[in-house]
Each structure stands twice: as C-alpha cells, then as structure tokens.
From TrEMBL:
Region annotation Disordered: where it falls in the sequence: 52-71
Pfam families according to UniProt: Methyltransf_23 (PF13489)
Protein name: Methyltransferase domain-containing protein
GO molecular function: transferase activity
Length: 306
C-alpha cells in the first residue's frame, strides 16, 4: 500500500460520522471557519504578493473572554450588500465558481454563498460521511448552487472522471487539511488544473513557527503535525504547480480552546511547555472534552494560474 493510500485510510478512520457531528459543534472550529472565510474574502487581489509581516500578525485577534472570541457572521464578514464597493478587486462576485477541496461538513463553504450569487459552491472530500452533513447545509441555498463530490484527487482509477473539473473554477480553497495530506505537492499540482486561467488557489492551515527551525514527528493521519513551512509551500505552488503571484505568510493569530492532543501535535514548544507546566487556562467543553486556551497561528498560501 502506498504512503498516500495509508494516509487516506488513516484519515477516513478518524473522520467518521460521530466525529463529524462533534466537529461541527466545536466552538474552535466554528470560530476558525468564520475567520478563514473572512480573510479569504478580504484578500488584497490588487497586491497579491504584499503580505503581512510577522510583527503585524503577532497579536492574536478577538476576545477570549467572549464566546467565539466575540466574532459573529455580522461583525466579522464583509457586508454582502457593499462587498464589491469595499473590495473592488475581489474575485468573489456574482457568477464565481468556487471549489472547496477537503471541504468536510461545509462549515467554511457556506460563508461564501452571499458573495457568489449565480455561481457555484462545490465541495470535494474523501469522506462521504462528512459530505452527508455538507449536503444538509446545501439544502439552505438555491442560489448559488451548492453541491459535493467524493474524490481522492490522486486516485489513478478516477482521473478520467476528474477531468470534468479541469479549468472550471475561479477559486479553489482548502482549509486546515494540508497537514493531513501525505503528498500535498502532487495534490496541489492537481488542484491547479481545476483553476480557470487567472483563477486563485488558497491553502489555509495551522502554522507552527518552530517548524521553520526544526523537524517535527508525523503520524499516518497527521502528516505535517507541526505545520507547513513557508518556503515549501511557495515552492509547491510556484515550481511544482506552476502558479504565479505566489506568496505564503502568517495571516493571523487567534485564541482557541483546544484539547491536549491537538496542542501536543500542532503547537510550538513554548505552548507545549505551558501545557505541561499547568500554565494554560482550562475548561470542560459542553461535549465533555477538557480544553485549554491557546494562541493559534494560521498560514495562508496563495497562487494564481497563468
């Protein structure tokens, strides 16, 4: 069995129906989904390679004393009525076709609906169980069309079927999935073919600053447990996938409540030390999980098809 197939099987074993329901109910995931959409919608397409510096994103956003850090759809997302006036260079407009790769239950996908009337929101994932919940979300929307497909884009037996997606999308987004993907270089190369000329690829993932300095252990399910390197992502988007206007940077930091396992596999050593020393605020979540308040960094890697 190939390493890629082992990773797929390991992920499918984790992402079952019970986990999907629990995932949807997590405050951390709901907060992050909202912020992922916010910063994609507000991306400066007029200056795509001018990114925030580490100093500009050092302070975590939000108020951890409030539910969801104080963020709501109304106060975090751009106003759909004035969106194109406020962001005239955005590619998200009526008629836009968006692919959410590794879309999961569609928590991020649905936030784009008010901005792409007359277009399409397509979800793609390896898990039919998670797409059941995606399809439930899709029932809320008549415009834009919201639909899903079950695919492993590197499955050799499905390449003929996958040709239907080539050159079809104005934007392909992928949020917090790359650290689960074994061969993300080849996945990125494939996703680039789904873009129309001029279309944009957004990869959003957890960022561990330590990974730039040292190696990080991996498991079969979580392939890049410490995060993804900026240079590696830029090389993947530019040299391997052939995209232009490529850039990667920490887009923001925010407060989230996470369990011990997440912290020990995704966060920097300073945070892990605080966990081990009992220095992190602690609570019992509504689902019974013990969670700790941490600052999480998010990296955005972006590229455009010629």
């Amino acid at each position: 069995m190939s390493n890629h197939k082992e990773a797929i099987d390991a992920n499918l074993a984790i992402f079952n129906k019970e986990f999907a329901v629990k995932y949807d109910g997590k405050e951390s995931q709901q907060t992050l989904a909202l912020l992922f959409a916010k910063f994609i919608l507000e991306y400066d397409f007029a200056h795509p390679m001018t990114r925030k510096t580490p100093q500009e994103t050092e302070k975590s956003i939000g108020d951890p004393t409030k539910p969801f850090n104080g963020f709501t759809k109304e106060n975090a997302l751009p106003d759909p009525k004035t969106y194109l006036q406020d962001f005239p260079d955005s590619i998200f407009k009526p008629g836009t076709k968006v692919l959410d790769f590794a879309c999961g239950t569609g928590m991020v996908t649905e936030y784009f609906a008010p901005y792409v009337k007359g277009g399409e929101l397509v979800g793609m994932d390896i898990s039919s169980v998670w797409l059941e919940r995606f399809n439930e979300r899709a029932k809320k929307f008549d415009d834009p069309v919201m639909k899903s497909y079950v695919y492993d884009v590197l499955d050799e037996t499905k390449q003929e079927e996958l040709k239907q997606f080539e050159g079809q999308f104005d934007a392909v987004i992928c949020t917090i999935a790359y650290h689960h993907i074994h061969n993300y270089e080849q996945v990125t190369k494939k996703l680039a073919t789904f873009l129309r000329p001029g279309g944009w690829l957004f990869i959003v993932d957890f960022y561990n600053e330590d990974v730039e300095k040292q190696g990080v252990a991996v498991s079969k399910a979580v392939q890049h447990m410490g995060g993804l390197k900026i240079d590696s992502l830029n090389n993947t988007l530019g040299n391997i996938a052939g995209l232009v206007n490529v850039s990667s940077a920490r887009e923001f930091k925010t407060w989230v409540w996470q369990p011990e396992l997440f912290i020990s596999t995704h966060l920097n050593q300073e945070t892990i030390d605080k966990l081990n020393n009992g220095e992190l605020p602690k609570r019992t979540a509504p689902d019974g999980d013990v969670e700790y308040l941490i600052e999480s960094s998010l990296i955005y890697a972006v590229g455009q098809r010629k």
